[in-house]
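pls design
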């Protein structure tokens, strides 16, 4: 008998009759307690009496008044005089359930558990001093009894579910369950398995002595549950039962339940404690090896072995494509699985593989004139350059790396063919190029773009020396994410095309760009010519002549922009020019850096954009020329006069070269040979080069950016999101939805928070480009009107609102975010904000009419719910 067993009975006896009495309790076995117990506020003396005579002796001793005495005796007391002197006039036997009633403060016990005698004993033994927490309930139900027992006897928080059980399994107290009787242990497992799905896996791991690995085992449980069926999986499950789970019979539902807990736990660790997360992941891969489960691991979104398997699958799919036995869709599936892996650093590689394959499978353009070829490069092939640049990586998987090299070689070959065609068209074009053509010369940018814009708004003319269209495309994504919009001239399709001076080197092209005429010069010439440019001076009547900042004048030695530059940007000067050499400087290094072209990698660009935003300046982001990166090759002799990628005409053009001549060629004699093939150079090796005749070098990107309203610049409109269809994965014949535009009203006529939709038509649309009739009916809905009023000043331009809903309607109510961006011409990062505002108008009373599924990337319009919510008649 233990003190824990005796104490609750004493509590009940003292509560009902008070202290000072003597109790004789039947003793079955020995007494493990002391001779004095504190019960509530009273001390109780306990004596062991092996016989009736011993009981009589204890009763004859003098005792302090009010002191309770308990005599523990195995004897059957027969003497009437003895019985007359003890409480209740009989020998008491301890009934565990009576003690439980006292411990819980209840009068009844749920019959469901009364037959579990071990449970009563366990509850008594586990009780804290003073008993369990009391409630108003007068009966103890089975759920409360089990919940209390699990927590106090074994340390298991049952209300915490499987997550709490996994935490318990990894802690130090698991032996509190393992040491119990077989009957008790089995009952606890039955209870947990019925109330906590997945608990059998955890308890099995504890029984096998691997409770500390339960999270790792949970990761492997995903592999065992969802790995491909067959002999490998059956064998791995059998080994798991024996080695990991203490003989537990494998159940897929339980395994998946633990897998979800483990994956969530590791996901949280990856954010809060990456080293610990990777320790768990390494442990899980060790378990995989123990079970010979490597053939199953591709299903795991977390295991490193799972990522290796997925990389191998992508490599195999690419190999089958080369052999002509795999379609692009198979490669996309393999790449999607890599992108779904949560610990992969190859998401971008997988994405670029898919894009590259789509581009290779698309029809190759065959432009017949230079302007078309330039547009094809700026709107299509520069994205292929982006993809093949990022694919020049190693993943650590030898087979996949071999396939990536083969894919890049295929990309290079097609781009080499395009560059050769482009260079021949360039040579024909520069022989008669004249001012005012659709393709601007760099010397025309100030006259035809900067000066007209400066008449309307102050301008920051920001030159990124050496920026190619590939780099511009990357930068534009980040710039748009920072709240800027690209503007293009009304009715212009595609980017503004700008042709460098030839050769495409800084001393010719940048000087020509900043001077406004084809000329050779240096930095000092540029600043003087820029300040005196006639068109810029004409629009600078207020605030002073244009000013140009170079290199050392840009940065404060203690951080940030130089004070003078900040002052000019914030002041009244109409045109401020800045030259940033970050890209050209990057090319000069002979390193293996893969530059992420964004405002984080070019801090000066971020600071300049922020200052321009604060000053409400338009930004004209320009370049003097582009560049090619070094991809090997060998240096050729350039003769007595040459640059990195051009040479004199001492000998005629060879393979990979192009002869050009004309007024745009600024070397003496007006003619030279340009390197076209990326592998051709006439200088020592470094990270990149310029001066050649490829579109990467001679086409200088020009982006006009605003951080304010796009309708504030006359003759210019916000540019559509017009990346190539293959870049996003849309069909090649994808048609953008026409966005109806109503005439602008004067600001005085605009009503804050009001949205006017296009008039209703009599027919529903039958394809993209048509506005559905229900949009007009939506405008008349009082519920919709009230939702607009509740949204306050949050507004979406009418053409965007209509275009987005019409595009979703035409697609059956669901489109990927990128596909919706492509159809509506809205950049994805800007589209997210637009959708969030539209939800204020449409998702009334908590009903999701319009949703964005972040996991799948789907934008979903529930048209049936929309009709119901806004009282629209079905049509």
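designed seq:
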């Amino acid at each position: 008998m233990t003190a824990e067993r005796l104490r609750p009975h004493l509590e009940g006896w003292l509560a009902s009759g008070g202290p000072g009495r003597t109790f004789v309790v039947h003793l079955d076995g020995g007494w493990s307690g002391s001779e004095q117990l504190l019960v509530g506020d009273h001390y109780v003396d306990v004596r062991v009496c092996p016989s009736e005579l011993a009981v009589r002796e204890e009763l004859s001793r003098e005792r302090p008044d009010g002191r309770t005495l308990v005599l523990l005796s195995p004897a059957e007391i027969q003497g009437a005089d003895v019985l007359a002197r003890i409480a209740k006039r009989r020998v008491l036997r301890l009934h565990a359930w009576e003690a439980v009633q006292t411990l819980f403060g209840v009068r009844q016990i749920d019959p469901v558990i009364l037959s579990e005698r071990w449970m009563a004993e366990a509850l008594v033994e586990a009780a804290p001093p003073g008993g369990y927490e009391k409630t108003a309930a007068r009966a103890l139900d089975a759920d409360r009894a089990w919940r209390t027992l699990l927590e106090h006897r074994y340390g298991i928080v049952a209300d915490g579910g499987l997550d709490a059980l996994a935490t318990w399994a990894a802690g130090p107290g698991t032996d509190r369950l393992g040491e119990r009787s077989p009957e008790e242990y089995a009952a606890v497992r039955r209870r947990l398995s019925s109330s906590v799905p997945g608990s059998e896996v955890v308890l099995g791991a504890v029984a096998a002595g691997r409770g500390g690995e339960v999270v790792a085992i949970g990761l492997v449980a995903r592999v065992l549950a969802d790995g491909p069926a067959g002999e490998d999986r059956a064998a791995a499950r059998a080994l798991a039962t024996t080695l990991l789970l203490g003989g537990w019979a494998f159940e897929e539902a339980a395994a998946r339940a633990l897998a979800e807990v483990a994956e969530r736990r590791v996901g949280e660790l990856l954010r809060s404690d990456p080293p610990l997360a990777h320790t768990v992941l390494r442990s899980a891969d060790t378990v995989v090896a123990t079970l010979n489960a490597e053939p199953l691991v591709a299903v795991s979104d977390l295991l490193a072995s799972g990522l290796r398997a997925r990389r191998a699958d992508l490599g195999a799919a690419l190999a089958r494509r080369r052999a002509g036995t795999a379609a692009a869709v198979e490669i996309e599936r393999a790449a999607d699985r890599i992108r779904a892996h949560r610990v992969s650093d190859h998401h971008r590689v997988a994405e670029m593989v898919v894009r590259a394959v789509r581009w290779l499978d698309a029809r190759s353009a065959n432009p017949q004139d230079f302007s078309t070829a330039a547009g094809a490069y700026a709107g299509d092939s520069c994205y292929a350059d982006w993809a093949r640049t990022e694919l020049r990586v190693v993943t650590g998987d030898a087979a996949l790396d071999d396939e990536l090299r083969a894919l890049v070689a295929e990309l290079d070959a097609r781009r080499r063919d395009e560059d050769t065609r482009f260079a021949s068209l360039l040579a024909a074009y520069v022989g008669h190029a004249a001012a005012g053509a659709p393709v601007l010369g760099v010397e025309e940018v100030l006259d035809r773009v900067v000066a007209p814009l400066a008449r309307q708004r102050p301008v920051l003319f920001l030159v990124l020396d050496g920026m190619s269209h590939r780099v511009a495309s990357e930068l534009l994504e980040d710039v748009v994410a920072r709240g800027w919009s690209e503007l293009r001239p009304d009715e212009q399709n595609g980017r503004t095309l700008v042709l460098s001076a030839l050769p495409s080197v800084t001393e010719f092209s940048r000087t020509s760009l900043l001077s406004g005429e084809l000329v050779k010069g240096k930095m000092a010439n540029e600043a003087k010519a820029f300040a005196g440019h006639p068109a810029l001076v004409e629009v600078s009547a207020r605030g002073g002549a244009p000013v140009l900042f170079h290199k050392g004048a840009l940065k404060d030695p203690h951080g940030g922009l130089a004070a003078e530059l900040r002052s000019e940007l914030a002041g009244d000067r109409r045109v401020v020019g800045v030259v940033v050499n970050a890209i050209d400087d990057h090319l000069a290094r002979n390193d293996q850096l893969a530059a992420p072209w964004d405002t984080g990698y070019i801090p000066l660009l971020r600071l300049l954009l922020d200052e321009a935003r604060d000053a409400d300046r338009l930004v004209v982001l320009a370049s003097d020329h582009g560049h090619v990166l070094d991809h090997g090759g060998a240096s050729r002799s350039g003769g007595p006069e040459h640059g990195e990628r051009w040479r004199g005409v001492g000998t005629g053009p060879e393979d990979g070269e192009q002869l050009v001549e004309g007024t745009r060629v600024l070397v003496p004699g007006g003619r030279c040979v340009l390197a076209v093939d990326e592998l051709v150079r006439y200088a020592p090796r470094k990270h990149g080069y310029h001066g050649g005749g490829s579109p990467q070098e001679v086409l200088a990107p020009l982006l006009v950016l605003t951080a304010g309203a796009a309708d504030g610049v006359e003759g210019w409109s916000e540019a559509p999101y017009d990346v190539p269809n293959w870049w996003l994965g849309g069909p090649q014949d994808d048609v953008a939805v026409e966005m109806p535009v109503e005439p602008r009203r004067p600001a005085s006529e605009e009503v804050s928070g009001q949205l006017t939709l296009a008039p209703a038509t009599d027919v529903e649309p039958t394809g993209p480009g048509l506005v559905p009739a229900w949009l007009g009916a939506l405008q008349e809905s009082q519920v919709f009107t009230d939702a607009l009023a509740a949204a306050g000043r949050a507004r979406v331009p009418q053409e965007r609102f209509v275009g987005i809903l019409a595009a979703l309607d035409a697609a059956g109510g669901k489109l990927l975010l990128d596909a919706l961006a492509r159809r509506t011409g809205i950049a994805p990062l800007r589209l997210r904000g637009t959708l969030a505002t539209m939800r204020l108008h449409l998702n009334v009373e908590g009903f999701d009419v319009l949703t964005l599924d972040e996991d799948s990337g789907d934008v979903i319009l529930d048209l049936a719910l929309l009709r119901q919510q806004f009282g629209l008649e079905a049509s």
